[in-house]
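TL;DR need structure tokens for one chain.
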Amino acid sequence: MISVDEARTKILKDILPVGTEVVALSAAAGRVMAEDALSRRTQPPADMSAMDGFAVKTGDLKSIPMDLKIIGEVPAGGAYDKEVKAGEAVRIFTGAPLPQGTDTIIIQEDTDFSNETVTVKEGAAKGTYVRPAGLDFRQGDVGLTAPRILSPRDIGLLAAMNIPWVTVRRKPKIALLSTGDELVRPGEPIGPNQIISSNSLLVAALIEAAGGEAIDLGIAMDNAESLREKVKDAKSADMLITLGGASVGDHDLIQPVLGKEGLSVDFWRIAMRPGKPLMFGSFSGIPMLGMPGNPVSSMICSYLFLIPALDALRGIIPRRPTRQKALLGHAMKANDQREDYMRATITGEKDGRPVVELFAKQDSSMLSPLSSADCLIVRAPFADALQKGAEVDMIPLTQPYPAV
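>> reply
TL;DR here they are.
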């Protein structure tokens, strides 16, 4: 068996980013920008007023109060195309360009005014309430540097930079193949010895939330012909995920059958719980992960290995699940040789840290505790027994995925 860190390194070692495509800015949120974004305009394009008031010359404000002649007004989106001379002022509104000859704004609250005259009651330094041209960015500036997962804030910036289309990494296509005679889809007729196939939907939801495109290849029966037929469509994907059948039992066919179809196995056992029988290799030139059949194992392996691989395919630095410190709400026995990931719930807080308690049953087939869990408690191999109140590592089960 290899360690979790060694497995992660092996999986990520040779994964290359997928190609690019151009999408409308309105469809770019959450996508990975593949090229630097250069501004197509200067913002603001001219000196602009930041307040409602009067555009004036600071040279006219040597003595206060000062009466100035109002010679016009300029709203946002408009312009005053004459030069303002000494003793004159222009009524101006937020977002309007400063008239030629003016250099400061007197806010409306600091004046008394009529239709023809404004009395300035409070002076102001040059540039007061003026947004100079290019304050935010200038044409040709690199506004965003690739690679970058585009946030809603980034979309706003790109729009202001007058960029309607963005070059992004295409969504990696991740093929999912479930295996086992015992599986049926939700809602289908179910036999007395069968179970619902939940793994593929769980993993597909994680893939979609993390920026990939999940392709469901269906359920392969426990025979070589069915497995070969179902896996054909995986060759057009960027990665293949098999769910179940990756161990060495009589009915575990992934290695013997796909080995004849182009599967080269790098490793297939990891010193972790749950998830020990994880397989990694290459299938017809694309990365392949053979997930355990239990849904909890599949989810934890997805957090640790699949989503980082998906990040690599998207051209960004592979993320690690966020860890933080928590306090045990009960005692815990010593660990064995495998790194353990246990489902837990947050029951309170002490000294600024969450207090966590494990679910009594940690069986990797149980989905109800997984759905109710707030976090995973991580224990190193051969970790000592711990008393109530001891500090432990916790991975919050946030969605779509813990941040870097």
